[in-house]
Amino acid sequence: MKNVDLVLSKAYVDGLWVDAKQGKTVEIVNPANGEVITRVPDMGKEDAEAAVIAADTAFQTWRKTTAKSRAQLLRKWFDLIVENAETLATLLTTEQGKPYKEAYGEVMYGASFIEWFAEEAKRAYGDHIPAANPHNRYMTIKQPVGVVTAITPWNFPIAMITRKVGPALAAGCTVVVKPGEDTPLCALAMAALAEQAGIPKGVINVVTTSRPAEIGDVLCRHPLVRKVSFTGSTPVGKLILRQAADTVKKVSMELGGNAPFIVFDDADLDKAVQGALISKYRNAGQTCVCTNRLYIHDAIYDEFMARFTQVVSDLKIGDGLEDGTDIGPLINEKAVDKVAGLVEQALEQGAQLALGGQVSALGKQFYEPTILTNVSESMDIAHQELFGPVTTVFRFNDEADVIRRANDTPYGLAAYFYTRDHSRVWRVSEALDYGIIGINEGIISTEVAPFGGVKESGCGREGSKYGIDDYMEIKYLCHGIDV
Fold it and tell me: What is the architecture of the domain spanning 4-255+457-477?
């Protein structure tokens, strides 16, 4: 690691590196080998309240800075992230487990949101509205919503922060970040780089904890918090929505998914196989937009499965810091137990094991890349967000039927399909009830396009020109004049 100064063991509140007020700490463990990396403050309600107050105090000044000034600071932060990309990627792999090449990609992807919103800060335009009578002039202006709580998950510990903090700071908001309990070190490193960039004290605060419910209760209910942005499971998202409702806060929710991946009989099979591989097994299947259900047309089923099974069997499992690793460990033993339990149950219900299906000999947090065939919608696994390296495969032979089956879920985050028929592209894209559609493409995320779901997969959008809107209020000005 080139810059060990970015491995920090204190939280960041009001521009200070602090311990928990009660003096408690929690171990952060490398999931690949079980070794303790360091200990960080195990913060509670009192710490969370201090962070909110610090953010509110900073907001009174930060909101008045010019968009150009905020843009310049964000740009400096972006430059420092890129400059320290190798260190950040190593840190990310060490605490989260994903292969280094994926971690480095995440660092650069995360940085792209800081760059994008540095530019968007200067484009938060209002409007002049033609008046209904000659004695009035109508205008709208956009203003920052206020203190923002950003509750982020462990699976993308840098990108999920920058997708929230970037637009918040660009809009003129201040932020309290609660990173995933298993992966706080990347958040602290990012805060250190923001400090180096000159972002004022209290504008970014990071609270670390092993007690997310206790901290979350403060961060989602506190009257000084005006916006909550959350990425995580749908059940927790529903709880946060209830907590935020008491003070009618703005919310952005990026929740669970159950992504279908449909391969029609006219698809380019080479591209479809590679698309399914990267969509499913990236980050060991621990992504909210990864393929859960693979629907293959009967006419090409055998050929597709032969190719797909081969490329999956070639994936190398191992420590993410070792060269050539494709699949790292799952985040913790609880995650492994969940995946193993779902596979076992599916087999009991009639699914067939085509590949994998057990914990790897490498260690108790490594699960083999797995393929289940003969899966039907009557099985419990068809309705679960797997969050592991397991593919469930379904057969179909009718377009309308597969669309109905793909939509038969409360989730609506991402969906994918492969076809060469241009008319089908439009029919299927418009019929799939999802916020993001990958058409002949397995990687869909970019800072320039809106990311978010429908139904129980959430509300609001991150990234793109729309991403800053969730952090601003529109104020209407009605000006009476003499004519």
Answer: 3-Layer(aba) Sandwich (3.40)
